[in-house]
Amino acid sequence: MNLSNIWELIFYIPAILLALSVHEFSHGFVAYRLGDPTPKLQGRLTLNPLKHLDPMGTLLLIVAHFGWAKPVQVNPYYFQGDKKRGMMTVALAGPFSNILFAYLSALLLSLMLREILPFNNLFALFLQNLVQINLILAAFNLIPVPPLDGSKILAGILPGQAGEFFYSLEQYGPIILLILIVSGMIQRIFLPIVSFLYKIVFMATGIPI
């Protein structure tokens, strides 16, 4: 491993920890605001990464550039109003927070590249990693396969029995996900999503694509 790779790893890991923490905190915060005390009782309303790390999901993010955190447990029976819509909102919160985080990181990077802010090579590298990791995490979780957020979002959009069908797949989700990962299909699904999010974020912040 050369020196440049070491520096990349030094900034890559903190970016992963921040992205995972923001993602799960957002799930917990929205659920709590909807009336569910479970995330707070379990200590998940924090940006402390030690509360959110899933060993396998974090390892995959480092090695394979896709992964996940330890899911926040949510009890929709506490939600005020429509519970199905509440679950969809909680699910959306994680990917949305990562896209927003990526946008803010890219905005800072853009200001540095345009010399509006002082340019610093190490900080620029860190910002690049933040953009990459947050968009990867958002794109991966938008895949509509249980237990990923995309399945709950789709279940909230689909009417009646169609939505319930996705919830019923929850018990088979880890097996489906494992098959997709081992077969390599997972990258074919989420890489176009990553590419699309990159274009949106870079266009919004004025960074050349």
Automatic annotation (TrEMBL):
Domain Peptidase M50: 124-162
Keyword Cell membrane recorded: yes
Compartments where located: Cell membrane
One GO term of the biological process aspect: proteolysis
UniProt cofactor(s): Zn(2+)
GO molecular function: peptidase activity
Positions of transmembrane segments: 6-32, 89-110, 122-143, 175-198
Keyword Disulfide bond: no
Membrane topology: Multi-pass membrane protein
Pfam families assigned to the protein according to its UniProt record, in alphabetical order: Peptidase_M50
UniProt entry keywords in alphabetical sequence: Cell membrane, Hydrolase, Membrane, Metal-binding, Metalloprotease, Protease, Transmembrane, Transmembrane helix, Zinc
Similarity section: Belongs to the peptidase M50B family.
Name of this chain's protein: Site-2 protease family protein
Organism for this UniProt entry: Dehalobacterium formicoaceticum
Source lineage: Bacteria, Bacillati, Bacillota, Clostridia, Eubacteriales
